[in-house]
Amino acid sequence: MDVSIFGAGYVGLIQAAALADVGHRVLCIDIDEHKIEQLQKAVPAIQEPGLSAMIDDNLRDGRLSFSTQASDAVIHGQLIFITVGTPPDEDGSADLRHVLAVVREIAQHMQDDRTLVIKSTVPVGTAAKVTESAREELKQQGKGHLAIRVVSNPEFLKEGSAVNDCIRPDRIIVGTEDEKAREQLAELYAPFCRSRDKLIFMDNRSAELTKYAANAMLATRISLMNELANLAELVGADIESVRKGIGSDPRIGYHFIYPGCGFGGSCLPKDLRALLHTGSSNGFPMRLLKIVQEVNEDQRQVLFRKLQKHYAAGLVGKSIALWGLAFKPNTDDMREAPSRYLMEALWREGATVRAFDPDAMSECRRLYGYRDDLVLCATRDDTVQDADALVICTEWKAFRVVDFELLARKLRDRLIIDGRNLYSPQQVAAAGLDYVGIGLPHLAPLGGAP
C-alpha cells in the first residue's frame, strides 16, 4: 500500500520504517529540513536499537523515502498517518494545535478521498474534532464532495525496544466505524498478523481512551510498588522478596512491579496528566490516579532524601558519582528522568555530580550545558574517581557487573545508593561498602574496608 506519514519524530519514524520493512511504500515528511537531510542518509535523530539499519535497508530498496513537501505526501498516500507531537498545556491537557494544523494542510492538498490515521496520543474526542476540521477545510476549498475517513490507531511502543514492539506488536488497536477504513487497516497490518490476528477493532472514542488507560494502569502498578517499597523499609521487610512473592501470582505477574526512583519519559507522566484533565473537565475527578501521580512525584526525590539522611551535616562540597541519565535503558531520553531531579537537588545543595550514561551524555549536555558542578565522564569507572558516593539511576546492563572492592577503594565515603536494586546487598556490604537500596533493609559495611 502507499502510505504517508506526517511527522518524523519518535513514533512516526519507527512506524514508517516498520511499514516499509514489510513491503509498503512509505513517504515520511517533516518540516525540519535538517532532520530530513539526515534521514535521507539513514541517520535518525533518536537512539533506538535496530532503527538506523532498518531505515538504511528500506531507503536502499526504494520502499522508504523522506521529504519536507506536504503536497507530495497527500498525493502519495492512500493512508495518511498523523504522528506529530501533542505536548501538554499548563493544565495537563494535550495540545492539539499541531494535529489540527496537519489535518487542515492535508485537506488543502486533497484531490481524492483519503483515510487519516491518528497515531499521535490524543484525548478522547479528537477523531471527531479532526473529522469536523477536515470537512470544514474541504468545504472552504470547494472540495466538499471528497470523503475523509478518520481512524484512531494509538501506539504502544516502549522506548528502548520500540522497533521490536512495532514489528511484533502484541495488539493493534483500530478505532473506526467506517467499513472502508476497516478494510484498509486490515490490509495494512496483515503482515504483522501472520501468527495470529492482533487487530482489535472498536469505535474511535474507545480506542483513544485505551491508550491512556493502558499507561494509567502501568503508572499505577509502578507507584503502588514504590509505596510498598517505602513501607518495607519502615517495617524492616525486603521488597525484593515481596516482589517475587506477588509476581508469582498469575493475576499480577512481574511486569512493572520493580521498585525504583519513579517513572519518567515522554509517555506515562504526560498521559497521566492528560487523563486526569479529561476526568476533571468532565466533572469526574479521578482520585486514584491523582494519588498515583503524587506518589510518583514524591518518589522522584527518594534518592536525594537518602543522600540527605546519610550526610546529615550537608552535601556542600560533596562529589556524587551518578550512573545512568536516561529515564530507562536503551534510550537517550531524559524527559522527566529521575536523574534530573537528583542532579538539580544536589546542585541546589552545593554538591558536584560526576555522571556517565551509555547513550544520554549528549542529551545531558544539551539540557544543562557546561557548568562547574557537572562532570560528564568517558566511562562509568571514571565517575568514581575522586567521588564520595555512587548513585545508580538507570538499570543499564553495563552497570550490572561491577568490582565492589574497587569501588570500596575509590569512593571516599564508601556509599552506594542503588535506585534500581541491581545488586545483592550482602555482596556489596561484604566488600566494605555502605549499601542503600529501595525498599531493602540497610546493610552497613561488613568487616571493614579492603
How does this structure look, described?
By secondary structure, the protein is α/β, with parallel strands linked by helices. It is 43% helix and 13% strand. The strands form three sheets. Strands 3-2-1-4-5-6 form a six-stranded parallel sheet, with helices on both faces. The chain has a six-stranded parallel sheet with strand order 11-10-9-12-13-14. The protein is elongated. The model has no long low-confidence stretch (mean pLDDT 95).
Keywords, separated by commas or semicolons:
450 residues, alpha/beta, 43% helix
Label the overall shape: elongated
**Strand line-up of the largest beta sheet:** 3-2-1-4-5-6
Biggest beta-sheet profile: 6 strands, parallel
Number of strands: 14
Counting helices, strands and paired strands, the structural category is: alpha/beta
How much helix, percentage-wise, in residues? 40-55%
**Poorly predicted regions:** none
Please tell me the overall pLDDT: 95
Q: Give the DSSP E fraction (strand runs of 2 or more residues).
A: 5-15%
Radius of gyration: 24 Å
Oligomer: single chain
Number of helices: 18
| Spatial separation of the terminal alpha carbons | 65 Å
